[in-house]
Amino acid sequence: MFIEPSLAGERRGWIEVICGSMFSGKTEELIRRLKRARIANLRIEIFKPGIDTRYDEQDIVSHDENKVMSTPIDNSQQILLLAQEVDVVGIDEAQFFDAELPYVCDQLALRGIRVIVAGLDMDYKGRPFGTMPNLLAKADYITKLHAICVKCGNIASFSYRKNASRETVLLGEQSLYEPRCRHCYYSET
Ligand SMILES: Nc1ncnc2c1ncn2[C@@H]1O[C@H](COP(=O)(O)OP(=O)(O)O)[C@@H](O)[C@H]1O
Ligand SMILES: Cc1cn([C@H]2C[C@H](O)[C@@H](COP(=O)(O)O)O2)c(=O)[nH]c1=O
Ligand SMILES: [Zn+2]
């Protein structure tokens, strides 16, 4: 389990990335960390990409319906304007953001802000997803989570798409995707 670094002494920012397949618990873990920061009386701002309207226009919602309020935005530079006077910034569905997001996270961390980012590391084809590889390269702390493979019960790192759509971005949940282990993923792709 991730334990927050000590905040004693001069305040320095850092970047945490939570990654993994769909259903691996990224959003739950993001919400858990943000709730703990709130308990510590830290000032928090939470962002998600405007296109992610799957469960709610505004809130970040996990597959188990844990939720937290967020600000939907269309480009990552908006975070630099909106995250004033805050101690912690949370960002969900990072894979959908533009290529500037790693730079934005760097700038926030330089301001002394703790940045917690959650996102899919791979798309349905098993390729690195969007800006995630660059974020992972810049992260100070990385947590890789796993779902349970729906075929065999082993740990799952892949998000298998159940229909024939070929576009990279296709919002959805259980009806469209299932988490699979490497073996079960490659046996049907
Ligand atoms: N195959 C699965 N493996 C693990 N968790 C699953 C699975 N299917 C459904 N879930 C549920 O999904 C929850 C995680 O949801 P969430 O945090 O939204 O994941 P993510 O953001 O990584 O997609 C788990 O706590 C569990 O209740
Ligand atoms: C694999 C994959 C996923 N998506 C979409 C599907 C969901 O709307 C989100 C992932 O949400 P989660 O919180 O990680 O469950 O991404 C996509 O557009 N393309 C893909 O290849
Ligand atoms: Zn499997």
UniProtKB/TrEMBL annotation:
One Pfam family here: TK
Keywords from the UniProt entry: ATP-binding, Cytoplasm, DNA synthesis, Kinase, Metal-binding, Nucleotide-binding, Transferase, Zinc
This protein's GO CC annotations: cytosol
Keyword Transferase: yes
Metal-binding among keywords: yes
Active-site annotation: 93 (proton acceptor)
Annotated GO biological process: DNA biosynthetic process; thymidine metabolic process
Domain of life: Bacteria
GO function terms (MF aspect): ATP binding; thymidine kinase activity; zinc ion binding
EC class (word): transferase
Reaction(s) catalysed by this chain's protein: thymidine + ATP = dTMP + ADP + H(+)
The protein, known as: Thymidine kinase
Lineage: Bacteria, Pseudomonadati, Bacteroidota, Chitinophagia, Chitinophagales
Gene: tdk
